[in-house]
Amino acid sequence: MKIYLVGGTFDEKRGKASGLIAKIYWALKEQAQVADVQLYNGGHIETLRKLHDENLMEDADAIMWFANVPNEFEKYRDIKKHYPRKLLVTSKRNHDEYKFNYLVNHALGLKANLVIEFSRGEEGRFQTRLFDPLGAVWVDRTYDIQVLVEGLVERLAYLKTVKRIGTRYKEGVIAIPNESEFVSLVKQLSDRFHDLIHPAEGVTRFLGNASFRCRHGFPSFRHGDKIFVSRRNIDKRNLGLDGFVPVQKGKDGKIYYYGEYKPSVDTPIQLALYESYQNVNYMVHSHVYIEDAPFTEVAVPCGGLQEVKEIQKIFPDRTTTNVAINLIGHGSLILASSVQDIEGFLDRYISRPIPEVMNSMVMKC
């Protein structure tokens, strides 16, 4: 694994190196899974601009972007815009002025895969915590940089193996079937999820997504069942039929969507599950848990196709339907044949512990 570590202060002079970044660098160098670490610890603001804008980190597997920039300069924070396929680790200094849901919102805004929180502990020493945008904590508060880095590299190594499939636009207009009963239920559920999660203002991703299978053919489709998935990042509390996006898997194995809006990032997972479980007609995914539902063993991030196998391990019978499953470190999923079957789970939703500290079994996946 090749990592670019960018930290310290960058300004119009020489900047200033950070002793903490230096410690992280040397700890990274000791990790067997890390083949190379490129260090930029303070310097001229032009160096930061070039790293940000000119694809100088294109050979990275992961980018750790901790640069401190005075307010009079551009902050260069939209790393994912320039390096969308790289794993991104960002940081946030927090001396008890920010609540955890703000930190999660910060991670979502930067599209970070992982975040290191730095805070002042005993005798002014830095304490660190590693978490992801779903509020799962991979290294709880520690003063030991070695412990932090070991947990960081372990999680990065797993994230590097996560497989995703993107969605592609396809021309055509597909009518959305009248599923008003399901839409009404999703709105009701989203109100429940919002009450359980209390996400930071503006965060709708935490309200999950919903989808349904249409078995009534439309001539516009050439093959396969029709699946309709809620739009990406739409607030489900205000959902209407126009909040669903028609999607299908093509003969080429790629996934296509119709209309101007992209579908949920979990679309490839749900299409695979509809293909596996032919009796399932509805799914509701949320970022809360369901009481007494079984848990997956491995914490898979949003959109990771490994989640399909995790679910299939628990429900190997492909005729399974009307079940709920908790996705460890993530949320839950209901697979149902009818809207009425989903209603049976309404009173079983419970909050995830946020932050949710992951144990060694989940970490060492």
UniProtKB/TrEMBL annotation:
<dbReference type="Pfam" id="PF00596">
    <property type="entry name" value="Aldolase_II"/>
</dbReference>
<dbReference type="InterPro" id="IPR001303">
    <property type="entry name" value="Aldolase_II/adducin_N"/>
</dbReference>
<protein>
    <recommendedName>
        <fullName>Class II aldolase/adducin N-terminal domain-containing protein</fullName>
    </recommendedName>
</protein>
<feature type="domain" description="Class II aldolase/adducin N-terminal">
    <location>
        <begin position="203"/>
        <end position="287"/>
    </location>
</feature>
<dbReference type="InterPro" id="IPR036409">
    <property type="entry name" value="Aldolase_II/adducin_N_sf"/>
</dbReference>
